[in-house]
Amino acid sequence: MHELTLVTVKRLAASLLGVGKSRVRILNPKKAADALTRDDVRELIRQGFVMAVQKKGVGTTKRDRTKGRGHRKGTKAIGKKLWMRKVRAQRDYLVSVKQRMESPAYRKAYVMVKGNAFRDVATLKSYLVENKMIKQ
Fold first, then answer.
1. What pLDDT, on the 0 to 100 scale, is given for residue 64?
2. Is the pLDDT of residue 1 over 60?
């Protein structure tokens, strides 16, 4: 019977305090077990034997969560500029060695550059040499 009355007191206190049952704390279970009516629970609240725990605030982690791609505004130029610089350098190199390449080899390498197959000009050079696409 004791446990059942504490559950009832907690429910009544939550209703009186305007909070959820999980935020109600009973500091003196013996006195709370004697409460029978809403007025008894009001008196326990007034005396401080029953209280509501303060609500937890919102953490600052929300700021970290709103940094994703979908929340970004403005230009994406930094990544694009790096890619443009890289591709232009590789295309310039291809044009400079075009005379020493056969026509299908040049076109294949050009398309591979466009498809981001090479990290930098050095990688492109080594690929062309390994696959014998440049005449020495």
1. 67
2. no
Quick one: pLDDT band at residue 78, thresholds 50, 70, 90?
A: confident
Query: Residue 87: which of 60, 119, 55 has the closest Cα?
Result: 119
Two tokens at 134? Answer: 């440049």
Task: Report which secondary-structure segment, H or E, holds 51.
Answer: strand 50-52
User: Which of 9-13's residues contact partners 24+ apart within 8 Å by CB, and which partners?
Assistant: 9/33, 9/35, 9/41, 9/44, 9/50, 12/38, 12/41, 13/41, 13/44, 13/45, 13/50, 13/52
The tens digit of pLDDT for each residue in 104-117 reads 999 999 999 999 99
Reported as a single tens digit per residue, the pLDDT across 20-52 is 999 999 999 988 988 889 999 999 999 999 999
Q: Which of 99, 97, 100, 76 is nearest to 113 (CA)?
A: 97
- Closest of 40, 5, 11, 36 to residue 23, by C-alpha: 11
3-state secondary structure of 99: helix
What CATH number belongs to 2-52? 1.10.1650.10
What class, spelled out in words, does domain 75-130 have in CATH? mainly alpha
- Residue 25 CA to residue 104 CA, distance in Å, equals 80
